[in-house]
Amino acid sequence: MSFECIKYEVKDGIGWITFNRPEARNALSRQTWAELMQVLTDTYDDYTVRALVITGEGTAFSAGLDIKEMSTVGFKGLGEFLSVILDPIELLQRYPKPVIAAVNGHAYAGGFELTLFCDIVVASDKAVFAFRENRRGLMSGLLIIRAHEYNMRFVKELTFTGRAIDANEAYRMGFTNKVVSHKDLEKEVTALCEEIKLVAPLSQKLTKEFLRRGIREIGALWEPFNELFRSEDVIEGFEAWLEKRPAEWKGR
To answer: FRET partner for 179 with CA separation of 20 to 30 A, picked from 25, 165, 223, 225?
Structure first.
């Protein structure tokens, strides 16, 4: 796959997506969103790719939506612009494999909100987070979809003020899973991915799906457990345990 606004490579079964517009602080243009959509689509059922990592080139993760580009489309083109955003976000919500945000620097506005749709967020100690849209007369729309997963008082504080917070405060508020040394960010995320690869991909897929659907009734679990018990991976998992060897997952 060849791209203009992102870099994509697979390393040891992990797909690495790097926003590659450092001169624009990795602002999310329509082309960036389209390329993200392509990677998500192409890897959706490809279980040679066990997880995706999203990060940024240079000193920013992403400064958010490309405001310069938005200003050129006018009100008539704004709906089309938003649809280009919502399609990959919707796909990201139901993507069947773990998605990790490796936040290497500034994650502002849409860049911050994008991390909310990732399953795990690992932040460099140089990362800075802010919901800046309200300072431009806009609203953090994508945040609203995910706000229920976070402490609402912190959500209100950050959106009502647009204040920037460092990585440690973002961790305290529950927006990141961990904060690591900037120089160790890739190493730490790679180690996390190695742990992810130890788990059966079908188990991860069904867990993600049912967490997203917010299942609360015990009876609803029969469906995924029946699917798991019929899978090749369950047989492989038990055989690997009995034979004291690593499992070789097939994703089926």
So the answer is: 25
- The pLDDT of residue 216 is 66
What DSSP letter does each residue of the chain carry, written as one string? ---SSEEEEEETTEEEEEE--GGGTT-B-HHHHHHHHHHHHHHTT-TTS-EEEEEESTTEEE--B-HHHHHHHHHHHHHHHHHHHHHHHHHHHT-SS-EEEEE-SEEETHHHHHHHTSSEEEEETT-EEE--GGGGT---HHHHHHGGGS-HHHHHHHHHH---EEHHHHHHTTS-SEEE-GGGHHHHHHHHHHHHTTS-HHHHHHHHHHHHHT---GGGGHHHHHHHHTSHHHHHHHHHHHTTS-------
Q: What is the pTM of this model?
A: 0.91
Query: Residues 240, 248: contact at Cβ < 8 Å?
Result: yes
Give pLDDT, residue 244: 85
Looking at residue 188, its pLDDT comes to 98
Cα within 13 Å of Cα(45), Cβ side: 1
pLDDT at 167: 98
CA distance readout (Å), 186 to 36, 58, 113, 203: 20, 14, 21, 26
* Catalytic, out of 35, 113, 133, 186: 133
Domains and CATH numbers, the chain: 6-196 (3.90.226.10), 201-242 (no CATH)
> What residues in the chain have per-residue pLDDT under 70?
1, 74-78, 215-222, 224-225
Q: Let me know if 236 is a catalytic residue.
A: no
